[in-house]
Amino acid sequence: MHSIWGNIFKRDDGPLGTRDLLKQIPIFSTLTNRELAAVERLLYRREYGGGDTIFRQGEPGVGMYIVAEGVVEIIYEPTGQILATLQKGEFFGEIALLNETPRSATARARTACILWGIFQPDLLSLLERNPSLGVKLLLALSQITGQRLVQADLQMHKLHEEAVRLEAALEQQDGEQADGT
Q1: Cys-Cys crosslink for 107: which of 54, 75, 119, 139, Cβ 3.0 to 4.6 Å?
Q2: How far apart are the first and last CA of the chain?
Q3: Does residue 88 sit in the same domain as residue 47?
């Protein structure tokens, strides 16, 4: 194709090629190009330096973030334990799109980062303007939330079983010490 025609008919891939990034994320992976373009209009670019706090545990959640560049750590504040390390194409804070409960952990940029934010008021506005797209997004969010809940439940069961096993071992040890053996 002649270069002038290529430039005229070239489709824009949104800010900094975000369409390809969105396609990698399960919430958006089934959307059409037109639907992805509508989502792109909701994105807010945020830049953070290494060590910057994105949000703190306990703050009200207002939206989710997609890592476009850099590394983000999710940290449980009371212990400082790193719960997750996220890189390009990964997302966090999606529960805030469904409700404004306090953040369960702190998000901190390990390196300089570029993030794309999507916030609850914009999602609700999209739901009013384009109900079918809004329902697709809410269904995908619900499915991901459900999967994470099942994983958390499995981890809780494993921890419970380990606690029961350790308690039985302690009781046996205490019994042996009481018998003098």
Answers
A1: 54
A2: 89
A3: yes
